[in-house]
Amino acid sequence: MWRRSFSTTGVTLGQLGKKKWDAVVIGGGHNGLIAAAYLARGGLSVAVLERRHVIGGAAVTEEIVPGFKFSRCSYLQSLMRPCIIRELELGKHGLKLLKRNPSSFTPCLDGRYLLLGPDQALNHSEISKFSSHDADAYPRYEKQLERFCGFMDPLLDATPPESLQGVSSFNDKLSNKLYKSAFWARCLRQAACLGQKDMGLHGSSIVPSFKSFEQLSDVLKATLATDAVIGSTASVHTPGSGYVLLHHVMGETDGEHGIWSYVEGGMGSVSMAIANAAKEAGAQIFTNAEVSEVLTEDSSIVKGVLLADGTRVESSVILSNATPYRTFVELVPTNVLPEKFVDAIKNSDYSSATTKINLAVDKLPQFRCCNTNNNHSSPGPEHFGTIHIGAERMDFSSLNVILCIGKHVINLFIQYTPYKPSDGSWDDPEAFAQRCFKLIDEYAPGFSSSIISYDMLTPPDLEREIGLTGGNIFHGAMGLDSLFLMRPVKGWSNYRSPLKGLYLCGSGAHPGGGVMGAPGRNAAHLVLQDLK
User: Where is each Amine oxidase domain found (predicted)?
Assistant: First the structure.
């Protein structure tokens, strides 16, 4: 049964099609909600249409096991742009961040372990257990990342300097040329300050960044390298993995760079805070409102969307928070978009390497290498951050990077798990889950016996339930051939599309995936600019 949700003026789903909206947003994920908030603040009437019964997309909190609420997909917060938190006053709307300290724990089967976090003294002491030279060199590694993140930061909030598409006025051409000139001039100045050595990290693999370490232990290398392959099918040696690393360390919490946080109430609280800001500005948000088609006029301009129940919603501006494939191949009618554009979208890399298992447990895992914590009911420092299971060497396998987070609720983020396993299918996910639990048992004896129940999302599940094409958590690969001016495809990196009035505002647009919000904010600003 269709039902209304998050309406501030009493508009029902049945009444949704009885007015023409200034803008319609397809998908109530965090980027779609952010776009709606900015558009509503700009004075537009906005309707957000979410397919599922709950808003948030992959940034969602759900009670899958009775009595246990999970951050079902994304699980940590750091990348949300500070300007969005400030401009939308997300703190006032309920966002509360809980900083992690320590931030990571890597247990070893030989009885050793590695703790890392924002405490430099702790880092030095922990790394010294493996190499005193590396302990001294580690701050230089962090400074290198910090310098490059400083270079990248302003690019995230900027629309890529794309060439104008279609017929443009003289003023539009002049404005675009001035914007591009100023953009590239700023980039060149920043690149000159950064230097050639640090600039190389953007396009290289993660491995060269380890050269400052004399005898870097495999445990430290593997722990640091996990951020370079999260959500990717690439290895740590793949060119471009250096950028994926930077993408995961360029965030901040309350002005502290590189600090990741849990969210009170789970990741759904991020989406709820944004939704509250959007509603306050006047946006209408509807759940159980699946869009089945983008409606066009003369195959050249949008005129609205058709819902799965047959409701027609009129608008001359559509922002899609769905993946590029879902938007341009599945929602836009055939033969409307240029064949070359559609082929490029179809041939983009949507492959996934990620499976998520959410567990409810009746006790904390007790790690063999941490025998000092005798009180099994109280968390130790090993329980506060990401726990890297099997990250004792750089040759990661399908079970070797599992990130466990939380107390009584544990999230397993597993690399590498393909959409189509080599043995054929995901027909027996239970067997795979048990292999994961058995691996953790090697480090934390008795872990399997603590499991009350669990929820598992394989790549096909992520595609079917969350709408992530191929199960890719970033709406598409984050390689060098699919970033910046190439995202989602060459020639269309500025959120517009060949279909007039249709914009892309999700993670498939610049600057990419993660709970960042920049695509939604940037796309909304562009729409407001175009409407002027």
Answer: 32-399
| pLDDT for residue 429 is more than 70 | yes
Report how far apart, in Å, the C-alpha atoms of 149 and of each of 55, 142, 252, 352, 522 are.
Answer: 31, 10, 11, 26, 19
What proportion of the chain, given as a percentage, has pLDDT over 70? 89
CA dist., res. 143 & res. 298, Å (int): 55
Angle, helix 170-194 to helix 132-156, in steps of 10 degrees: 170
259: which 2 tokens? Answer: 């600090």
Which uninterrupted H or E stretch holds 360? strand 355-361
Quick one: DSSP state of residue 366? Answer: -
Residue pair 132/125 in contact (Cβ under 8 Å)? The answer is: no
* Whole-number Å distance between alpha carbons of 495 and 499: 11
Query: d(Cα 221, Cα 391) in Å, to the nearest integer?
Result: 9
Average pLDDT of span 171-180? 87
Nearest to 239 by CA among 478, 72, 431: 478
For the stretch 447-506, pLDDT in tens is: 999 999 999 999 999 999 999 999 999 999 988 889 999 999 999 999 999 999 999 999
Number of H helices, E strands in the chain: 14, 22
Q: Residue ranges of the alpha helices (H) in 100-259?
A: 120-128, 132-156, 170-194, 196-203, 218-225, 241-249
Which amino acid does the sequence have at 143? Answer: K
What is the DSSP code (8-state) at residue 210?
A: G
Contact 88, 65 (CB under 8 A): no
In this prediction, residues 185-195 reach a mean pLDDT of 79
Q: What is the DSSP string of 435-451?
A: HHHHHHHHHSTTTGGGE
User: Which one-letter DSSP state was computed for residue 486?
Assistant: G
pLDDT tens profile 1-16: 333 444 444 567 777 9
Q: Is 197 exposed, middle or buried (0-12, 13-18, 19+ CB in 10 A)?
A: exposed
Own/partner contacts of 242-245, CB < 8 Å, gap of 24 or more, are 242/201, 242/202, 242/203, 242/204, 242/205, 242/206, 242/208, 242/209, 243/201, 243/202, 243/203, 243/478, 243/480, 243/483, 244/478, 245/145, 245/206, 245/209
Structure tokens at 78: 């750091």
H-assigned helices in 1-29: none
| Single-letter amino acid code for the residue at 134 | D
- The structure tokens listed for 32 are 């779609």
Residue 269 or 173, more confident: 269
Say what the pLDDT of residue 214 is: 55
Is the distance from CB of 70 to CB of 85 less than 8 angstroms? no
